[in-house]
Amino acid sequence: MTRIYRGLLDILHHTGVARASRHACRGVGVVFMLHRVLPEAATPHRAPEFAPNGGLVITPEFLDAAIAFVRQRGYELVALEEVPERLRAAREGRAGAPFAAFTLDDGYRDNMEHAWPVFRRHGCPFTIFVAPAYADGESELWWEVLEEVIRNNDEIRPGLPGLPQRLRTHTPAARRAAWERLYPAVRYMEEHAQRDWVREFGMRHGVDPHEQCRRLVMNWNELREMTADPLCAIGAHTLHHRALARIDEEEARHEMAASRARLEEELGLEVRMLAYPYGDPDSAGPREFALARDLGFTLALTTRKGHLYPGHADHLTALPRLSLNGFYQETRYLDVLLSGLPFLLYNRFRRIDVA
Q1: Phi, psi (rounded to 5 degrees) for 119
Q2: CA angle at residue 30 from 110 to 135, to 5 degrees?
Q3: Comparing C-alpha atoms, which of 326, 303, 339 is closest to residue 11?
Q4: Residues 6+ away with beta carbon under 8 Å from 236
Q5: Most distant CA atoms of the chain, gap in Å
Q6: Positive/negative CA dihedral, 214, 215, 219, 221
Q7: DSSP tag of 112
């Protein structure tokens, strides 16, 4: 599927269609979404033949090129907290230059080691969305557990209904096949059962999910060091990184509110921005958008794909983002995405998608 998408983006780029449609399709701004930033040399396990989470990883070199390219295209780099006022101004006919804000989800340690120097070099503001349970080192990045288990074992035992008792993972093809069967089964499990399962599954196959969490994610002291930089802002990402639409309303409200309270207590700053974990329509919808608004968040970000348009000023807790994806690390792809055309095609020409 990635190959197909690349092909479509290449067609839009090389034919000039994307560039010609820029003024008609482009929004007034974009919010970029990143997760991990790692040099190629630091990811020897992410070989091309098995990199299921590779879309979450970009190199510092591509981040550097992307920031420079966005500026070259006339975008103003802004802090995320400025976005609501920018949208209100655009709605009132006072839009200036297009703007871009950068965000990173989950608080991976490589954000500090490899992304932060790039942002500082460009003087580019950025926001990291943090789930306190990850900063505590006491939760599970289940997608990372799956990858590490499959990569390091020649055979796995899922112990899940509808799946074989044993899956061979001894070759790259077998690993990819195992991932394709296991990932959707785990992704859409009941949220609490999912974490119980992944802890047991990881330990049974030689991966301690909490040790992995502490290895991959920044702790509170590291987050305090980063927030001393005025370029760095912090947003809430719920307490435990749960798909909010898949839990009851009381728990969803608690996940949002308690996340903000804990971040403010630990970091000594005001937190008024939220990113919904996963952020797709199955994980965050109208109920969650209303909860975020009722709890006083000034904005909340989904992973729905798209640019920001003046009408988003009326939907500040349901804002889309543009992913900097590890499978598309070419500025020609970024150029097409900045035209806005692929997102309008994907969303059937709806500029506002909040249903």
Answers
A1: -60, -40
A2: 30
A3: 339
A4: 129, 130, 256, 259, 260, 263, 271, 273, 274, 275, 297
A5: 61
A6: positive
A7: I
Domain boundaries, the chain: 2-137+217-346, 139-215
Which residue type sits at 63? L
Mean pLDDT score of the chain: 95
pLDDT tens readout for residues 136-172: 999 999 999 999 999 999 999 999 999 999 999 999 9
For residue 212, the tally of other CB atoms under 10 A from its CB is: 17
CB atoms within 10 A of CB 232: 21
Tell me what pLDDT residue 334 has.
97
The pair of structure tokens assigned to 210 is 């909490």
* Stated pTM of the model: 0.96
**Sign for the pseudo-dihedral over CA of 268, 272, 275, 277:** positive
* CB crowding 134-166: b at 16 or more within 10 Å, else e: bbbbebbbbbbbbbbbbbebeebebeeeeeeee
Residue 211 neighbours by CB under 8 Å, 6+ apart = none
Kindly report, residue by residue over 59-95, the tens digit of the pLDDT. Answer: 999 999 999 999 999 999 999 999 999 999 999 999 8
The topology (CATH level 3) of 2-137+217-346 is TIM Barrel (3.20.20)
